[in-house]
Amino acid sequence: MEKNNSSLPGTACAPSHKFAGVQAFPINALPAVQLVSEDIAELSHSFEAKWKAVSRYYERVNSDLLFFFSDIAIQAEAMGARALFASDNMPAIKAAAPAILTPRAADVPRMQINAQVVRAMAQGFPGRSIAGLVYGPFTALGQAMGEQEVLRSVRDRREELHPLLEKAFLVAESYAALLMDAGADVLWISDPLAALLPPDAFEECAGGYLHDIFAMAVTGKTMLHICGDVSELIKPMVETGVSGISFDQCMDLLAVEDQVPRDVAIIGNLEPVEVVGMASAEYTAEASRDLVSVMGILPNFILSTGCAVPPGAPLENVEAFVNAGKQAMDEVQNKANILRTISQKASGGDGPETVELVREALYMNVDPLLVAHSGLIRSVRKSSALYETRQCYLPEILLTVDAFYQGMELLRPMIAGQGGDSVDVVIGTVKGDLHSIGKDLVRIMLEANGFGVLDLGVDVSAGQFAQAVREHSPLIVGLSAFITSARRLLPGMIGEIRAAGSSGMKVLVGGAAVNGAVASEVGADGFSPEAVSAARLVRGIVKAVRRS
């Protein structure tokens, strides 16, 4: 299932992309506004204020790619739209352009300011890469004319749309040239509206223009960010000639990594709002390390956020994201080749080879926890991601899990006492029901995703569940019901189980006798129809609990 694009097993892994020295960065620099007395509106119109904010921000945040505090309205405003500026919100378009203008970027005051900031960053932060952030012509035109108007034109007035897109392209091209001439060495294009294009219209309405703008970058260092689910757009995005693709937080990178050539960077994709913007610094660091443990073994991975970090995000969270991520990248990439090969063999269901590679990694003094997370657990998480996107099937997952367990047998004695014995989830089939296969698959998938599971077996009474809850204080209890008589017991059982646990404990149900509606009726917190989605549901709940 997992493609082998690696070299022979070894230790360190050299980047396969063009962005040498770029390991981690948050998108944009919007939290910089917290470091100055000026507000967002003032930063949008003053070089001195913006440079002061950005320079202070990057003195604190050790980002490998620097941004100049950009906003989505700037090109549309230059094209004739009226922008609204506020003290505590990012600039936005207030009224559409009566006609689309094509000014030179050097003649647009706000674009001049951003070029000045780029020039100052090049002097003030030598050796660090600088992004020249431009919005794609399709998105800029949507801002200038109205997004719905432009989207309708894709289908019913496309011949009228092209001359307007050409004008938006000229403005984007001029702006990109201004920023690159000022010292930006990475040409970054954000084109969020392009995510809403039908795949058959992407090349004509967005991709071709992006290709031509990227061709301007003499360094060859280009990055493309399109918000949302771009599963059907990855191939045409690659065909723009871009050298790095930034993925939205909604994308599971494990499901798409094989679609991205090894010389194109996979950039992403920590949640910028719920994690960096709202969680604790400790959780942000943990989430950063977890993402790296899964993706950092790839030679073309760069850690970033899934979109721009909001202006109000705590600065300590931004620092935690970058610092923890860089440390994790160093640890993982130092042993990436052997870890990647372990993951590939386990994903392919080759148990004996997986065991030999785990043994070889231990002989090389690779941390057993690193082998477990970045080698074995990664393989199961990737198989699960492929299953949920219909790229593989349950028999293949079971073979991967078999290889996972064989490799873990070597590691268990070494990771005991390092969090490996805690019980995160208690599961069982309810009283009077002897069905076990669905419940067993859930246990397998949860264990393979790194969760501690206590399996109480079948024909489990409410009292047995409650006793296990009192003894182990799990985050989650899962009840399986395959027959109607078992389903009827659920309301009473769930009440007794809840009385034994903490207020934050969640109760989930599954099995042939229940569905989402039944789960709500019996008082459960969630429902999953099968094992792979159960593991995803549990992972989401555990993340939410740890984030709070």
What does this structure look like?
This protein has 22 helices and 15 strands. With 548 residues, the protein is α/β, with parallel strands linked by helices. The chain folds into three domains: 35-267, TIM Barrel, CATH 3.20.20; 337-415, Methyltransferase, Methionine Synthase (B12-binding Domains), Chain A, domain 1, CATH 1.10.1240; 425-547, Cobalamin-binding domain (Rossmann fold), CATH 3.40.50. It has an eight-stranded parallel beta sheet. Strands 12-11-13-14-15 form a five-stranded parallel beta sheet, sandwiched between helices. A two-stranded antiparallel sheet has the order 3-4. Helix 10 (253-256) links the parallel strand 8 (244-247) and strand 9 (265-270). The model is unreliable at 4-10 (pLDDT under 50).
Top keywords for this entry?
metal ion binding; cobalamin binding; 15 strands; Methyltransferase, MtaA/CmuA family; TIM Barrel; 548 residues; globular; 22 helices
CATH uppermost class of the largest domain: Alpha Beta
Overall structural class, as computed from helix and strand content, comes to: alpha/beta
> Per CATH, what is the topology of the largest domain?
TIM Barrel
**Overall geometry:** globular
Spatially, the strands of the biggest sheet line up as 1-10-9-8-7-6-5-2
Rg computed from alpha carbons, rounded to a whole number of angstroms: 26 Å
**DSSP strand tally:** 15
Uncertain runs with pLDDT below 50, 5 residues or more?
4-10
Looking at the overall shape, the CATH architecture of the largest domain is Alpha-Beta Barrel
Number of distinct helices: 22
Span between termini: 35 Å
The description of the largest β-sheet is: 8 strands, parallel
| Average predicted confidence as pLDDT | 92
